[in-house]
Write a structure and sequence with these properties.
single chain, 346 residues, Rossmann fold, Dihydrodipicolinate Reductase, domain 2, seven-stranded mixed beta sheet, 13 strands, 19% strand, globular
Length: 346
């Protein structure tokens, strides 16, 4: 099948993206900077090519922030991302200018950043350079949150977990959608046992990444959070405007994720439970994720298990392989085996 080539920039021209206006217009929300944090609570950001860098900093550095963030604040940022992605050149100067007034020092290297912080937010958009940028933090044993997508393949993701474990560095990754109240409520039994679910999110295509990795991950992670573990095979149908990935769980349940590239922007879904069927509430923004990140920085305990994160990327890798094979069901176990073999060959 021919892959659709419309860029995320074209997609954003057609519709508003929630949070983007807020990120580019800090004057809409009064911001008073907190006093500098003590040693042990200093956070560094790697990558200023995404609004996540400024949105997370707004939450952590606001003088009105609650004690729920345990005193963690962003103090330093290394702006560089990947020159291979158009967002890098256009967004870095913009987000650098926005983050400076929040009390963030701009540094010239990752090593310089690590010498001045106690924990790391890896926000660079490009998953292809995450291992390279995370490795110094792993070696320094700094707790690190790696934003989506972790990598450009399941093998990349496995490599990052292996490197973090080798250096005994706490690490986790997640879409913010995993932690919004509505998704967590369903995962904790609001609809009863989830018998099936349909989720949707934009799935813009970035030519350097597999189709669902770049943005479709939001819908995939939402699906796997409400369905729970145990997906054994994935089939995916790809057209110019959308993708539909169907996951088959080991107990026979089915879950679908629709990735869109036309029409109105939206993220959501429907859950079918043995107690009730319900529309999935995905409102809530980034606060719940940042609260989990602050807890993680304090305790070193990831709020998402390693196997849960790996299953998200195995699902998307299987969907990519299914597209190549005309929509055939692809075994998750086989995808895991191939990724492990790829890493052994490096």
């Amino acid at each position: 099948m021919k892959k659709q080539s419309r860029s995320r920039r074209d997609f954003l021209k057609m519709m508003p993206v929630p949070g983007l206006t807020l990120a580019l217009s800090p004057g809409l929300v009064p911001f008073e900077r907190r006093n500098p944090p003590p040693k042990g609570r200093r956070v560094g950001i790697i990558g200023l090519d995404t609004s996540h860098s400024t949105e997370f900093t707004k939450l952590l550095n606001d003088a009105n922030a609650s004690d729920a963030y345990h005193g963690y604040q962003v103090t330093c940022a290394y702006p560089q991302g990947s020159p291979g992605i158009w967002r890098n050149a256009t967004n870095i100067p913009k987000f650098t200018d926005l983050i400076k007034p929040m009390g963030v020092k701009i540094v010239d290297s990752i090593d310089e950043l690590l010498n001045q912080v106690d924990a790391v937010l890896l926000e660079t958009n490009d998953g292809a350079i995450h291992l390279e940028q995370a490795m110094p933090a792993f070696k320094a044993r700094k707790p690190i949150f790696i934003d989506k997508p972790m990598g450009v393949s399941l093998a990349d993701v496995l490599q990052q977990f292996e490197a973090a474990e080798k250096h005994q560095a706490p690490m986790f990754s997640s879409s913010s959608l995993r932690f919004v109240d509505g998704v967590q409520a369903v995962a904790n039994g609001l609809a009863g046992k989830v018998l099936g679910a349909d989720t949707f999110s934009p799935a813009y295509i970035e030519k350097t990444h597999p189709i669902l990795f770049w943005y479709g991950i939001h819908g995939v992670e939402t699906l796997l959070t409400v369905m729970g573990p145990g997906c054994e095979a994935v089939s995916c149908t790809h057209t110019e405007d959308s993708d539909i990935a169907v996951g088959r769980w080991s107990d026979g349940r089915l879950g679908t994720m629709r990735g869109t590239r036309t029409g109105r922007y939206g993220i959501g879904g429907t859950v079918y439970g043995d107690k009730e069927n319900m529309v999935l509430d995905v409102s809530g923004g980034y606060k719940n994720l940042v609260l989990r990140i602050a807890d993680f920085f304090k305790t070193g305990i990831p709020p998402v298990r390693k196997d849960q994160t790996i299953e998200v990327y195995a699902f998307m890798q299987a969907a990519e392989e299914s597209i190549k094979q005309g929509g055939a069901y692809i075994s998750i176990a086989e995808i895991m085996k191939k990724a492990a073999e790829a890493n052994r060959g490096k």
